[in-house]
Amino acid sequence: MPAxxxxxxxxxxxxxxxxxxxxxxxKIFLDDQDYRVFLHLLKYYLSAAGKGTPHPITTTxxxxxxxxxxxxxxxREVELIAxxxxxxxxxxxxxxxxxxGMTKLLRRVATTYSLYFNRRYKRVGYxxxxxxxxxxxxxxxxxxxxxxxxxxxxxGLEQMTRCDLVTYPYSSYPYFLRLKTADWLHPEEILTxxxxxxxxxxxxxxxxxxxxx
Length: 213
Fold this sequence. Notes:
This protein is an alpha+beta fold. It has helices spanning 32-46, 101-121, 140-152, 173-176, 188-191, 197-202; strands spanning 14-21, 78-86, 89-96, 133-137. Helices cover 30% and strands 14% of the residues. A hairpin with a 2-residue loop joins strand 2 (78-86) and strand 3 (89-96). It starts with 13 loop residues before the first strand and ends in an 11-residue tail after the last helix.
């Protein structure tokens, strides 16, 4: 039986909501370093290519690798619009400019992050619950609403309020409010749709993450 919410045919210049969680719903981020390694991988793959860029696993991940495999830059093949990392899952809003840009990015991030996680915590086996899920976003209204849904995810954490969303360190929300900038993130894809993004998010009803799985 086909998995729920898995796009079978990918298209060029299409936008997708990609997400996955830990196998058996386990946590895939146990502390700040884990979150930063995952984000560093996204930055490494999606920033403009530069010589001598240190490997995320040996720097942020603080692991010694013998001849670490170079990570190929993908910034001309896929763009990251929004993201949110949660203790046991992640959400990414991606626009691929080649037919397999998203697949390349998510496979490489998952493989490299799993290597880091398993070595750090001395475990073996799969970290993620199978292949990532991907849903194509086909209209501007859906794109705006989905970005809001992604940024509201931390609201489900204990003692989180909507005011705390701005300071949650593992979300692209501060970039949408122009509090941060990064060349590997492209919030303008959504910010051109509204001049009051913060109001839109704060006035939107939150949803339960379990509805996706």
